[in-house]
Design goal:
Layout: E1 5-13, H1 17-25, H2 30-33, E2 37-42, E3 52-57, E4 60-70, E5 74-81, E6 85-96, E7 99-110, H3 113-145
Antiparallel strand pairs: 1-7, 2-3, 3-4, 4-5, 5-6, 6-7
């Protein structure tokens, strides 16, 4: 698992940094904005660095682990069990213009058969992420209004 495929998204939202931070760490809501995720279950609670959660996707089940929790600044987690695709996801949140500037970095590695096809499907993965981020932005907007 050597080659990494990285995709970064940046956007600004009127949601406060605390709203974005709380949304980012509430991984149970990932199924609301990530199209391939059907359900998320926390394995460990309360959430802290090292806490795990399971994602049930249309491609199988993955287990992820929190690697960073810096209040109102950063949330990060990574795949620790998967059938082939492993991701590190980092949310960096900064206060900007009475709202938040959000950068989410996705770093993918693969093993097995997926290692061969990841270069071929990475553009499709990026397109899916870009569409999911639009849903995320609208959820954050709704959350900031309420």
């Amino acid at each position: 698992m050597k080659k990494q495929f990285i995709h970064q998204i940046q956007f600004q939202t009127p949601a406060s940094i605390s709203t974005v931070y709380n949304f980012a760490k509430k991984v149970e809501r990932r199924s609301e904005w990530i199209s391939i995720i059907k359900k998320v279950e926390l394995v460990d609670s309360p959430i802290k660095i090292g806490s795990k959660f399971k994602e049930f996707t249309n491609k199988g089940t993955m287990i992820l682990e929190f690697t960073a929790l810096e209040p109102n600044n950063k949330v990060a987690y990574k795949t620790i069990e998967s059938k082939g695709l492993f991701a590190d996801i980092n949310w960096d949140i900064k206060e900007k213009n009475e709202g938040s500037f959000v950068q989410i970095s996705f770093s993918f590695k693969a093993k097995g058969f997926l290692k061969i096809i990841l270069p071929l499907i990475f553009n499709k993965i990026k397109k899916g992420i870009n569409e999911d981020i639009k849903v995320l932005e609208s959820l954050l907007l709704k959350t900031s209004i309420n």
